[in-house]
Design brief:
This protein has four helices and twelve strands; from the N terminus they run H-H-E-E-E-E-E-E-E-E-H-E-E-H-E-E. By secondary structure, the protein is an alpha+beta fold. It is elongated.
C-alpha cells in the first residue's frame, strides 16, 4: 500500500505529468467556455412580446403579453426578458408599442414615472372631477396633491321682499351654506394651462383647478351644483388634517339636507320625464 502511495506521489510531482495535466485542464476549460458562449448565442430564449398594439399610458396586464423564442444574438437594445418586469407597468406617455413588438426598458415605466400619474391612481368605480379654484380659496396655494379637503356649498337666491302679502319693489338674498362632502382626496392641482402647479417648485404657478375623484352619485350631485342657473352656487374647498391620520376617512355626504335640496331644485325635463337615459336635466 505504501509503495502505491509513493508511486502516485512521484507521478504527480513529475514535471512532465504536471505539464500534461495543466494542458488538458486548459483545453477542457476552453472547450466548456467556447460551447457555453456558442450555446448562449444560438439557443432560443423565451421573451415576452405585445399581443396587440398598446397605446400610450396603457396599463400592461398579463393577458396583453405573449411569449416567443428568440436567439439571444437577435436581442438588441434593452429588451425586457422577464414578464414580471412588465406586468402592471405602463406604456410611456410618448410611446406606442406595436403588436408583436418586444418590450424594452425605454418604453415601459411604472405608474409614478408617468407625467400625470397622480390622476390615474383612484378607485375604478370613482369618477374624476375638476373644480375651479384660485389662489384665495386654496389658502394661498396651500392645497397639495395628497391632501384631503371638505367641500362646502354656498347657495344664494335672490327673492322679492314682501310686506305681508304685498311684494315690495326690492330684492333680498337668501343664503344657504354647509358642508356637502367630506374626506375628498386631492389628486392634482393644475394651472390654467393644465400643467401641475407643483411639478416644478421653482416655478410659481397660479392654481386654476383641483382634480379629485368621487363615487358617481357624488359626482352627479357636484355637477348639478356647478350648472345651477337660478341659484348662485359656489363650491368651497376647505383643507383638513385627514391626510395625517393613519387611516383617512372615506369620502362621504356630510349634509343630507343640502343633498336633498339640490336634488329637489334639479328636475327632469318634460321630454321623457323620469327616464334618465332619455331625458335631460333642467336646473330651476
Amino acid at each position: 500500500m505504501g509503495n502505491i502511495s509513493m508511486a502516485f506521489k512521484k507521478f504527480l510531482t513529475n514535471k512532465n505529468t504536471v505539464t500534461v495535466i495543466g494542458v488538458l485542464l486548459v483545453i477542457v476549460v476552453l472547450y466548456v467556455g467556447y460551447n457555453y458562449r456558442i450555446n448562449s448565442k444560438i439557443n432560443p430564449q423565451s421573451v415576452p412580446y405585445a399581443l396587440n398594439e398598446l397605446s400610450p399610458k396603457t396599463k400592461i396586464t398579463k393577458d396583453m403579453i405573449g411569449t416567443t423564442e428568440v436567439p439571444p444574438a437577435m436581442l438588441r437594445g434593452d429588451p425586457l426578458t422577464d414578464a414580471r418586469d412588465i406586468i402592471n407597468k405602463y406604456v410611456r406617455s410618448d410611446t406606442i408599442i406595436p403588436a408583436g413588438s418586444l418590450f424594452y426598458k425605454s418604453t415601459v415605466v411604472s405608474l409614478s414615472e408617468l407625467p400625470d400619474s397622480i390622476i390615474y391612481n383612484y378607485p375604478e368605480d370613482f369618477v374624476l372631477v375638476n373644480m375651479a379654484v384660485n389662489t384665495t380659496n386654496t389658502y394661498g396655494n396651500k392645497v397639495y396633491p395628497g391632501n384631503y379637503i371638505d367641500i362646502y356649498l354656498k347657495i344664494v337666491k335672490e327673492e322679492d321682499v314682501t310686506d305681508g302679502n304685498t311684494v315690495l319693489n326690492d330684492k333680498t338674498d337668501k343664503i344657504m351654506i354647509g358642508k356637502l362632502l367630506e374626506n375628498v382626496k386631492v389628486l392634482d392641482v393644475l394651472d390654467a394651462s393644465g400643467d401641475s402647479v407643483f411639478e416644478n417648485v421653482e416655478e410659481k404657478k397660479t392654481p386654476a383647478q383641483i382634480i379629485f375623484a368621487v363615487p358617481e352619485e357624488y359626482h352627479i350631485l357636484l355637477r348639478k351644483t356647478m350648472y345651477l342657473r337660478t341659484y348662485e352656487a359656489t363650491l368651497i374647498p376647505v383643507p383638513t388634517a385627514e391626510s395625517l391620520k393613519k387611516n383617512p376617512g372615506e369620502v362621504a355626504i356630510s349634509n343630507t339636507d343640502l343633498k336633498d335640496f339640490i336634488n329637489q331644485i334639479t328636475v327632469w325635463t318634460d321630454d321623457n320625464a323620469g327616464t334618465p337615459n332619455g331625458g335631460g336635466i333642467s336646473n330651476t
